[in-house]
């Protein structure tokens, strides 16, 4: 039996995933009638019966395999298509614009933010024109912080009066697609809920198991608080041990991300593995009796999934819990499990429960990391055979880190645009310390009734987490800790993976064919990079960004750009991270020249490599001329009209469009996002009456034009 034949679950998984992938990529534009699926299934069953009853040639067995693969593909496609909002006529997203009031249930743990509580709701019914209608579907809501909203918890049924709107697509080029992210969680609408516009009708309307799990997690978090675990130590310990990430600030996340240790801040397979080891040890007394040999696996599975529920059932936790479940079952039945089959089984189970997980970044990275470790770790570890116990442990950890990093770095580059240069050093610190933190945190919880021991372990936990945080900060502060601003597209990511796979096969098989394939892949990858670089050098653009309460204008010439703004953006600012960073990386832009638009009429644009010149608030960029009108210059009236391509209204000025037209003759008026919505709508109306072309950045997203 060859390797492929020993992986039946993987052979089932591939066409099933292909169907899911196709449905998500083409947004289910091809409708597959239900009767077609039933007919195909009937033909398949008939063929299987004929295959069993008659002596069909062995050489024709591929026909049955092909039919099964097609069926699995169609099943994956149709199953995913059924989750598409267009195929759910009772979904709330079809009714929200006419809803006066809604009744909904809190379906996930409440997430605390700086000014609001983020709550995912399952809509039960809506009130339209005085009548109640039953609906279904989810909505993302943001409750204004007050003494009542902090009491909202999972399972609460709430009545709300608020304006629900469709989630907006990205308002700026390269911006994180929050609409797509929420749609992959079947959420299509959102609302801001003010104090006094809602009230709780009932409690405990959710899953009993999930409700109990979250209450236990909150109790454990309270134990940490009672024993004076605070600040960053509390944030990291609660995230690492219990999957509670609400208290981690953006700066700390940035530090962990820059060193390649971000995975530590979310409960993953490593954490579940540690818990499994502890539980397996604690339940080892069951091994002494053959009579109870099946009780231990049952307890292990229940406790592993209970821990997964407490930590929030993230994709990485689900994958680890599912995989460990199949391993436990296999051992209980006395069967040796193939790790690839086990991985396939866990992935198949999770995708049947929620096929949209396929596009979840955590799901993708966790499975690829494990596949990399399984496939590459042994090969890497054989490169050196240390003699001492300590060196063996260190080398084992290094080989695992190398295998995981090699497997995940193309995908990580695609999503995060950076590479941690000291990932080996990071993992040598993070893995042992995080294991000790998990053990110590569990001891704090277990010994909490005994004050002396709990206080002792809590102090140890604080020191361990403090040591972890300081180590990560030290590594992040080292020179060249990370290569940032790396941009690759999907094709280049695929080429990187093909290159890794063919190199590995070459070293295993020693066949020159695979070396030639590596060269071909390298040429394709280099060509794609060269084309991208050539395009970036030739680009010339004007972009007026949509950043709330801010004016932000980019003049782009090749890899250089001039950034005009009334706000000081730093690399760590939230607005930069959300709205600008990805686009600047995607366009391969260098660090910008910064100009404050508030003093533009007093100070000229500095000499740069760009073809941009200014005279007061007028700017000439190649063949385009535009004027920025803000509070420092809007009252200045010229004796004659000045022709411009763009008139950019900024800073919430107190004027009318007609007054501006006394001084300027624009081809297009751009109202930037520093203006209020009320004034924006007023100016849009005035432009319509005056028959002047107008573009509102606040309402329509960023204005982008090639020069």
Distance between the terminal alpha carbons, to the nearest Å?
63 Å
Mean pLDDT: 85
The CATH topology assignment of the domain at 540-706 is: Metallo-beta-lactamase, Chain A
- Radius of gyration (CA) equals 29 Å
Structural class, from secondary structure content?
A: alpha+beta
Largest sheet: 9 strands, mixed
How does CATH name the architecture of the domain at 540-706?
4-Layer Sandwich
Summarize the structure.
The chain contains 21 helices and 22 strands. It has 707 residues and is of the alpha+beta class.
Q: Can you offer a commentary on this structure?
A:
The chain has 707 residues and is of the alpha+beta class. Among the domains are: 4-82; 92-206, OB fold (Dihydrolipoamide Acetyltransferase, E2P); 490-538; 540-706, Metallo-beta-lactamase, Chain A. Strands 1, 2, 3, 4, 5, 6, 7, 8 and 9 form a nine-stranded mixed β-sheet that branches. A six-stranded mixed β-sheet has the order 16-17-18-19-20-21. Strands 15-14-13-12-22 form a five-stranded mixed β-sheet, with no helix packed on it. A hairpin with a 2-residue loop joins β16 and β17. α13 (389-416) runs antiparallel to α16 (490-509). The model has no long low-confidence stretch (mean pLDDT 85).
